[in-house]
């Protein structure tokens, strides 16, 4: 994995660390962006992804802090000379949706499942402009990807996103990094269902080259099996 290619520090001192934005090339036209926020007293990373296409940029998840959204959009346009055209969010928690309102003002079409929209409205979180009822295929500039709802896991609405040509599975917070020592925030989780949902995902998307978790590092497809291991240990 290449080192982070650039880091934007928006303000000074300790506040700057929480406004840190890292962008890492993954493969081809795929990039991981990482933002940081305080989680239980620790500065913790959250991953999102964007894909550069001939017709604009696809964004997966909408950052953890809205103050980081415009710098990311500006960085993408400066580096790739293209604008973000659409964004799909993977569940309703704020680390996936905080930047949605700014994306909307920039003309980005924002999408989520109808369940994510409903849960977000209930909790007072930011919500998308458009929603889909079932697993959906999106295409932009020759790049296609599909959403998949595996079942209740980290949250009742969590989805994963599969890019079949590149064999990239974006798991969001449904999938735990190999760096994770636990399952993290279980406020909306169902551990029993989560295990079955991950097994369903493994069966459906075979031999991914990359699996991108919502937090911490990513390596090959090990995160899927590490998530299962954490779930098995939690149920003991």
Question: What does this protein structure show overall?
Answer:
- With 236 residues, the protein is an alpha/beta fold.
- It has one domain (6-235): 4-Layer Sandwich (Metallo-beta-lactamase, Chain A), CATH 3.60.15.
- The protein contains seven helices and 13 strands.
- The protein has helices at residues 13-18, 69-80, 94-97, 100-105, 114-123, 191-204, 222-235; strands at 6-8, 21-27, 30-39, 42-53, 56-60, 84-88, 109-113, 130-132, 137-140, 143-148, 160-163, 168-172, 210-213.
- The strands form two sheets. Strands 1-2-3-4-5-6-7-8 form an eight-stranded mixed β-sheet. Strands 9-10-11-12-13 form a five-stranded mixed β-sheet, with helices on one face.
- Which spans have pLDDT < 50 for at least 5 consecutive residues? 1-16
For the residues shown, what is the average pLDDT? Answer: 90
Number of strands: 13
User: What name goes with the CATH superfamily?
Assistant: Ribonuclease Z/Hydroxyacylglutathione hydrolase-like
3D shape? globular
Structural class: alpha/beta
Estimated helix fraction? 25-40%
Strand order of the largest sheet: 1-2-3-4-5-6-7-8
Q: Number of folding domains?
A: 1
Rg, nearest Å? 16 Å
Distance between the termini: 34 Å
- CATH class reads Alpha Beta
Summarize the model shown:
This protein is of the alpha/beta class. Helices cover 28% and strands 31% of the residues.
Outline the fold blueprint:
Layout: E1 6-8, H1 13-18, E2 21-27, E3 30-39, E4 42-53, E5 56-60, H2 69-80, E6 84-88, H3 94-97, H4 100-105, E7 109-113, H5 114-123, E8 130-132, E9 137-140, E10 143-148, E11 160-163, E12 168-172, H6 191-204, E13 210-213, H7 222-235
Parallel strand pairs: 5-6, 6-7, 7-8, 12-13
Antiparallel strand pairs: 1-2, 2-3, 3-4, 4-5, 9-10, 10-11, 11-12
Helix pairs in contact: 6-7
């Amino acid at each position: 994995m290449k080192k982070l290619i650039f880091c934007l520090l928006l303000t000074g001192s300790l506040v700057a660390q929480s406004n840190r934005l890292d962008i890492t090339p993954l493969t081809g036209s795929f990039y991981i962006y990482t933002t940081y926020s305080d989680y239980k007293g620790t500065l913790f990373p959250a991953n999102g992804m964007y894909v550069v296409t001939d017709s604009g940029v696809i964004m997966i998840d909408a950052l953890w802090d809205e103050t980081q959204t415009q710098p990311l959009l500006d960085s993408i346009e400066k580096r790739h000379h293209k604008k973000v055209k659409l964004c799909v969010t993977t569940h309703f928690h704020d680390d996936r949706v905080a930047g949605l309102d700014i994306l909307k003002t920039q003309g980005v079409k924002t999408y989520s499942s109808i369940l994510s929209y409903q849960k977000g409205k209930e909790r007072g979180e930011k919500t998308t402009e458009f929603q889909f009822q079932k697993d959906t295929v999106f295409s932009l500039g020759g790049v296609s990807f599909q959403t998949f709802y595996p079942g209740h896991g980290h949250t009742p609405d969590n989805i994963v996103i599969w890019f079949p040509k590149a064999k990239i599975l974006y798991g969001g917070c449904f999938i735990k990094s190999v760096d994770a020592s636990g399952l993290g925030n279980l406020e909306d989780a169902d551990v029993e269902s989560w295990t079955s949902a991950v097994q369903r995902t493994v069966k459906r998307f075979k031999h991914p080259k990359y699996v991108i978790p919502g937090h911490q590092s990513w390596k090959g497809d090990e995160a899927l099996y590490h998530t299962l291991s954490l779930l098995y240990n939690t149920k003991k």
